[in-house]
Design a protein that fits this description.
With about 180 residues, the chain is α+β, with helices and mostly antiparallel strands. The protein is about 25% helix and about 10% strand. It is built from five helices and five strands. It has a three-stranded mixed beta sheet with strand order 3-4-5, with no helix packed on it. The protein has a two-stranded antiparallel ribbon with strand order 1-2. The longest helix is centred in the C-terminal third of the chain and has 14 residues.
Length: about 180
C-alpha cells in the first residue's frame, strides 16, 4: 500500500510531502494495515523557535541580505520568508547554502517580507525541532552539515504514527510459526 503523507498533518508545522510505501510478507498483515489518521495541527513555527536572546546575531538578515534574498532566482516558486505564526516549507539538504528564514517582527505588514522587517535564518536547533527531534539531540557536526542532515531526515512524529500502525497490523511484529 502507498500514501502521500505530509508532516503538517502529524503535528509539525512544516509542509513536507513524501510518498510512503508499506509492504508485508503476510497477506493478513497487509489487509489489517491502515495508514495513520491525519491529526489537527495545533502548533506554529513560533512554538519551535529558540529564545531570540540566544540567536547568534549573524543569523539576522541585514536590509541588503533581505533584498538579495527577495531577488534571488534560486527558486521562483519557493517562499523566501515565513511568518512565525504559520507553517514552514520543506526543509531540505540544499538549505545549508540558504537556510529558511522567518519573519520575527513584521514592520512592513507584508506577508512576503519587506526590507524593514526583522528577518532571520532558522538555526540548526530550530531545523531539528521542526523535524521532531528533542532538544536532547546533540549536534556534533558543523552547522552546514547539520542543515544537510536534517534536510535528509524524516519527520519523527510522522514516522512514530506510521510505525505504530505497522505494529498494530503485524500484532507487534510476531514471528511466523
Amino acid at each position: 500500500k502507498w500514501d502521500l503523507l505530509n508532516s503538517k498533518d502529524f503535528g509539525i508545522p512544516q509542509s513536507r510531502k513524501r510518498i510512503f510505501i508499506v509492504g508485508f510478507k503476510r497477506e493478513e498483515d497487509f489487509k489489517d494495515f491502515r495508514f495513520p489518521m491525519r491529526k489537527e495541527l495545533k502548533t506554529t513555527i513560533n512554538d519551535y523557535l529558540v529564545p531570540e536572546n540566544s540567536v547568534d546575531p549573524k543569523m539576522i538578515l541585514t536590509p541588503q541580505q533581505i533584498k538579495a534574498t527577495m531577488n534571488s532566482t534560486y527558486s521562483v516558486t519557493r517562499d523566501k520568508f515565513y511568518l512565525s505564526d504559520g507553517i514552514i516549507g520543506t526543509l531540505n539538504a540544499r538549505d545549508y547554502k540558504d537556510p529558511k528564514c522567518v519573519i520575527i517582527n513584521s514592520v512592513s505588514g507584508k506577508r512576503k517580507g519587506g526590507e524593514e522587517d526583522e528577518i532571520r535564518k532558522l538555526t540548526p536547533r530550530e531545523y531539528l525541532r521542526l523535524q521532531g527531534f528533542s532538544d536532547g539531540f546533540k549536534q556534533v557536526v558543523s552547522n552546514s552539515q547539520m542543515y544537510k542532515q536534517v534536510g535528509n531526515s524524516m519527520t519523527i512524529h510522522l514516522m512514530q504514527y506510521l510505525f505504530t500502525e505497522v505494529s498494530k497490523a503485524t500484532k507487534g511484529f510476531k514471528k511466523d510459526g
